[in-house]
Amino acid sequence: NVFFPKCVMCHNAGGEAKFLDLSSRQKFFEQRDREFLGSKLINFDSPEESYILSVITDPEEPMPPTSAGLGRLSEKEVETLKEWIQRGLP
Fold first, then answer.
1. What number of H helices and E strands is found in the chain?
2. pTM for this one?
3. Which helix H or strand E contains 90, and what residues bound it?
4. Would you call 50 exposed, middle or buried from its count of C-beta atoms within 10 A (0-12, 13-18, 19+)?
């Protein structure tokens, strides 16, 4: 309810950001160890170090980009995403 409405629009097999398909839980697991700028996409041991969280909370170029018109994730949504990672993406 937090991640998918704001990210899958572009991050899917046919989307603008298809290089990182996040359209399903299975896709997350398949790509969780991919590294971006020295960080794993999903870091179960230290969720706050997950690349996905760093791009969502980037102060200069956050995801989703402003051009998408979806708005930034709220602090509560970011915390929910961290918890989802800590729990192993249930």
1. 4, 2
2. 0.84
3. none
4. buried
Locus of tokens 């998408």: 68
Tokens matching residue 17: 């950001």
pLDDT at site 76: 93
For the segment 52-67, the average pLDDT, to the nearest whole number, is: 92
Q: Mean pLDDT throughout 63-87?
A: 91
Residue 30: C-alpha distances to residues 25, 33, 39, 44 (Å): 9, 8, 16, 14
Phi and psi at residue 35, in whole multiples of 5°? Answer: -105, 140
CA 80 to chain centre: 12
